[in-house]
Design goal:
465 residues; FAD/NAD(P)-binding domain; Enolase-like, domain 1; 32% helix; binds flavin-adenine dinucleotide; binds 1,4-dihydronicotinamide adenine dinucleotide; Dihydrolipoyl dehydrogenase; dihydrolipoyl dehydrogenase (NADH) activity; Lipoamide_DH
């Protein structure tokens, strides 16, 4: 078999690269070791977690918001089995959708574990042990990432789980202990908290969500605490012991000091993810890596001609849309076009309630870079639509360059923040100013008016506050 391009891994990076390459006329194949396509994101990540976040949020709304809206349905009863059916149906529809798209674009799909014996060759080892070698002009490594282990703690995916196990629990834990106050811990913690678990989060640093704008993270922590989360910041888990009387977790201050113990039914380890390069044969093929990630240049090229890499396995945020955009760009580059990704305008969303959405620089980053900036802020308590839906927690913060007014960052905590950030993403992509945003007509009554008012507040001319 001989191809223009073989893509290893069919996550959001890989399948998108393959489809774009096929659109551009390249003879393309993909190799995937999972039974289904779609990678971490569609099988065990973005999609199942959002299915459960949505379902558990509806449960929470029925429990706590419906009465205030004048809807009396009695106390909602949880049918966890059906909720998991909803999750699986969502996953199945998405992964089958990718299989359909690959077929529609005439992409050959091989199931098995790929390795690279040399540039121009991809070996595929099927589950039954048989192997075949694909000849190809180009290779894209899109093998993604896996959960990072916590030294000294054994994951069994039943009691001590990663996100994968935590999205498959057969019953609601009484006590869920989460190690790591990052995106996974707070999203999946929210799912089980809404369904009745007491959630305790142990975080190594003295804050939640490192890298997120400080003010947003602080407000988010307060809101989560109101929802019942308990945080142990500046702390690390040193031991997890599972016995007949349940699980005991030993926690120490990060800086050293006296240990304490916490009890839990389930322990979720969510301390980051690490790139998947094991067994790919990178060393043999001479492909350079840096701290586990495949090293690439600005055109996704590794040091070996004809071998490219994208997505979680390379530098940058581990996000599905970042991987997808890199997939498009690498295919265009291989086809001789000018593919490009703007890393200054990649939004990040946390799909909790309220949602947290960020793009561009945080205040702390601007200060550290010595860039003079102006701030405009607007709270959802002053937005008519937020009041109508009874979700007034949070605010929008716009950061603009003090000299040029160009928007450098936007941080939102509030209802539908993930959708609201999209207009700021487009604005930033076009190098827009806070004035541009403030003078754009926004429909009334919408949550997006809070974004416009935050932009107006940069020059202290907001109307509704
Ligand atoms: P992956 O999706 O990891 O795909 C890589 C594929 O390569 C896998 O299918 C793997 O089986 C295959 N593979 C690996 N090695 C080989 C080999 N040797 N041979 C053949 N195949 C191989 N991101 C968001 O943007 N939004 C979210 O809401 C979001 N939620 C998440 C929730 C959870 C619980 C998790 C864990 C992650 C979430 N992410 C989210 C992150 C997102 O899943 C990743 O950024 C994204 O999947 C990366 O895409 P990728 O194509 O680089 O790799
Ligand atoms: P993360 O990097 O977001 O957070 C990990 C947290 O664990 C950090 O706060 C870190 O300080 C802490 N930590 C590290 N070692 C620790 C230790 N020993 N003890 C206690 N705390 C420790 O990683 P997470 O949540 O595992 O997510 C992995 C990746 O998946 C992220 O990079 C994220 O981009 C992606 N993801 C994206 C989602 C989204 O876009 N909505 C949802 C879920 C995951």
């Amino acid at each position: 078999m001989s191809y223009d391009l073989v893509v290893i891994g069919t996550g959001p990076g890989g399948y998108v690269a393959a489809i774009r390459a096929a659109q551009l006329g390249l003879k393309t194949a993909v190799v995937e070791k999972r039974k289904t396509h779609g990678g971490t994101c569609l099988n065990v990540g973005c999609i199942p977690s959002k299915a459960l976040l949505h379902a558990s949020e509806m449960f929470e709304e029925a429990n706590h918001t419906f009465p205030a809206l004048g809807i009396s349905v009695g106390k909602p009863k949880l049918d966890l089995k059906q909720m998991m059916v909803h999750k699986q149906e969502t996953v199945d529809a998405n992964v089958n959708g990718v299989a359909f798209l690959l077929k529609k674009n005439k992409i050959d799909a091989f199931h098995g574990t790929a390795s690279i014996p040399a540039a121009g060759k991809v070996e595929v080892k099927a589950e039954d042990g048989s192997t075949q070698v694909l000849e190809t002009k180009n290779i894209v490594i899109a093998t993604g990432s896996e959960s990072a282990p916590l030294p000294g703690v054994t994951i069994d995916e039943k009691i001590v789980v990663t996100s994968t196990g935590a999205l498959e629990l057969g019953s609601v834990p009484k006590e869920l202990l989460v190690v790591g106050a990052g995106v996974i811990g707070l999203e999946i913690g929210s799912v089980w908290s809404r369904l009745g678990a007491k959630v305790t989060v142990v975080e190594f640093l003295d804050r939640i969500l490192p890298g997120t704008d400080d003010e947003i993270a602080k407000q988010f922590q307060r809101i989560l605490q109101k929802q019942g989360f308990e945080f142990h910041l500046g702390s690390k888990v040193t031991k997890v012991e599972t016995g007949k009387k349940g699980t005991v977790v030993t926690v120490e201050p990060s800086a050293g000091g006296e240990a304490k113990t916490l009890s839990a039914d389930i322990v979720l380890v969510a301390i980051g993810r690490r790139p998947n390069t094991d067994g790919l044969g990178l060393e043999g093929a001479g492909v350079a890596t840096e701290r586990g990630r495949v090293t690439i240049d600005d055109h996704f090229r590794t040091n070996v001609p004809g071998i490219y890499a994208i997505g979680d396995v390379v530098r940058g945020p581990m996000l599905a849309h970042k991987a997808e955009d890199e997939g498009v760009a690498v295919a265009e580059i291989i086809a001789g076009k000018a593919g490009h990704v703007n890393y200054d305008a990649i939004p990040g969303i946390i799909y909790t309630a309220p949602e947290v959405a960020t793009i561009g620089k945080t205040e702390e980053e601007l200060k550290a870079a010595g860039i003079a900036y102006k701030i405009g802020k607007f709270p959802f308590t002053a937005n008519g639509r937020a009041r109508a839906i009874r979700h007034t927690d949070g605010f929008v913060k716009v950061l603009a360059d003090a000299a040029t007014d160009r928007v450098l960052g936007c941080h939102i905590i509030g209802p539908h923040a993930g959708d609201l950030i999209a207009e700021v993403t487009v604005l930033m992509e076009f190098g827009g100013s806070s004035e541009d945003l403030a003078r754009t007509c926004h429909a009334h009554p919408t949550l997006s008016e809070a974004v416009k008012e935050a932009a107006m507040a940069v020059e202290k001319r907001q109307i509704h506050m």
